[in-house]
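User: Can you help me understand a structure? I only have the sequence.
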Amino acid sequence: MSRGHGKLERRLLEIIRSEKRLFETMELAGRAYGARYVEQLRLWLVSRAQVMATQRALRALAGEGLILDLGRKGSRKWWVEKRLGDELVAGVAAFRRVAAAEP
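Assistant: Let's start by predicting it. Here is the structure, written out as tokens:
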């Protein structure tokens, strides 16, 4: 039986729910672990183990339906809170309906 969300999962949910926007895996790992961000390189200084743990936690949260996995764009994987993701999907569907109706 599950004991609930672990420390990393709780921190990731807190970060994702704090802002209404898309998040990339490396940013979430960096923020969750309190890593340093190097502006000149546009890079979070996180270990491979921290990134892997973050990926596992994000997949678990997505499996529970709390966040949405938006897939990859290049080498980056994107995540969003479920409610915002639903709004984005509805907005895209409405845009497509309008675009299809225009001559």
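Now, to help you interpret it: The chain has one domain: 7-101. The mean pLDDT is 88. Let me know which part you'd like to focus on.
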